[in-house]
Amino acid sequence: MEDSKPFGMKQEGYSNPSPIMKTEELLFRRGKVKQALMIFRDLFSKLLSAYKTDYSNPAKGKYKALRDAAMLMKKKYQWVNCQKRVGHVPGIEVGDRFQYRNELIIVGLHRQFTNGIDYVGKGNYSLATSIVVTNRYDNARNHGGSLVYIGQGWNPNVRNDSMPCDQKLVGGNLALKNSMDARRPVRVILKVDGEYVGGIENNINDKFSYMYDGLYLVEKMTQERGTHGKLVFKFLLNKIVEKPSKCVSPKDGLIKNGNKFGQLDAFTLRKRLKPNCYATKDVIIMNDISKGQEKFPIRVVTSTNGDLSFDYIVNNIYVDSFKKPMLCGCDCVNGCVDCEKCACIVKNCGTIPYDSKKRLTSRVESCAIYECGSSCKCSSSCFNRASQSGLQFQLEIFHTESKGWGVRTRSFIPSGVFVCEYVGEVHHRREAGSRQNLDSYIVNMAVNECFIDATRHGNIGRFINHSCSPNLQAVEVVYDDKDKNLPHIMFFALQDIPAGREVTFDYNSCKPRFIRTGNNACHCGSPKCVGRIYI
Ligand SMILES: C[S@@+](CC[C@H](N)C(=O)[O-])C[C@H]1O[C@@H](n2cnc3c(N)ncnc32)[C@H](O)[C@@H]1O
């Protein structure tokens, strides 16, 4: 699995919601964070090999090396961002990944070795600063940037020899409640699947890392009985959607750095800035290009001009008439789990394409996925209808440096989930040849003799660029959609995608193929780039 962004590596399409601070100072702080991480990793490596002979269990040796490296640095005053704070931490950007949890401590992102909640102050005067979200607890991350976080205290999913008891409104739990009451933001760090690229070799297969996902607001706190019979606190947090950094409002000519909370509460007059201080001056030129047709508004952000002349649609327009094969739906009334009985699963060669969370279970190599549809007896929430409920995440159209428009996500997208469809006018394939050199929005379908042209009518899918290291895959999905049983082109996440990251797919690896146009030089910036968009 591809990594998102190891610390220090900046990628196109990323927007940095840093607190107001001069660029030079930000760079200086980032340099300090980077330096602290280098010292930590070097120390850890040395300690790890020193402890090799002392510990027969490599996991124990690793744990001690990690802890000792952090404590040695503390003794030498090598930790950075030492003062606990609410809000972003200078030098750390949303989307930064860290290999080890102790790295969060030494850079000041989350200053707790094991506790999931970190906070400042005491009792009723405390405020939560950060939480680490792992799947050890019943924490649930929902689509669209909200999550349910289980409070701290006795937890049945953690090895615990004592008797279970009710969670108490003290420490971190109280701090989260105080943050809710005071409407103060909390940093969220996600434990995400996937190896850390360029990480330290340690013989222990670390299949996860930690990603800073930005600021959230605690919206609600409830107390419920957990599976172990005792009371637990549940906190509902919503991601704060921040404006891109250095965002210029077209009306007032101000540069806005964030939102109304705490240290982000700042507006700076553009004329006060030194020349060359900021590289980008992104302007929100449209608040919702879909004009309310999508579940989430899709804004358009740019620092330059670009052509946007097309009609936004959310469903394919069938221009030609097609002989539509009749699809017979399934008769499942208790969920489509029987690979032999469910008529739709049978069409997928007897394999269930999605898991219970509607995530693709593996990379799709076959031609198409057959989902349940309107003539099936299963419910509309059946997991085998993963791509039929529209957008699940806030996406944004932005102007890239060298690829024209592109699409980036404003919230974290977990690996395997449906992201969006490629919508346009559906024609017979024989038409495609005559249009070939006109535009770059035509995709040939693999399954039927047709193609989708999003030149004049399309949706957000038409703005997704090619990458030689993509984070989306395009899949043809067929379902009984009233009378249109032609395939749809659906994009699914190939990996966890952090907020702010551009979403891309490989125009050549997918079964639906883009028709080659004149412009073929690839600017994806991947180390694996083959230099061409269309092969
Ligand atoms: C489907 S459109 C993608 C959206 C397009 N960037 C826009 O501005 O509307 C495909 C076109 O985008 C550009 N493009 C996509 N990926 C690219 C890449 N990796 N490098 C350079 N140009 C790219 C090429 O002009 C290509 O023909």
Automatic annotation (TrEMBL):
It comes from the Eukaryota. Residues 87-239 form the YDG domain. Residues 328-390 form the Pre-SET domain. SUPFAM superfamilies: PUA domain-like, SET domain. Residues 393-508 form the SET domain. This is Uncharacterized protein. It holds the Pfam family SAD_SRA. Keywords: Chromosome, Methyltransferase, Nucleus, S-adenosyl-L-methionine, Transferase. It is found in: Chromosome, Centromere; Nucleus. Residues 518-534 form the Post-SET domain. It comes from Stylosanthes scabra. InterPro entries: H3K9_HMTase_SUVAR3-9, Post-SET_dom, Pre-SET_dom, PUA-like_sf, SET_dom, SET_dom_sf, SRA-YDG_sf, SRA_YDG.
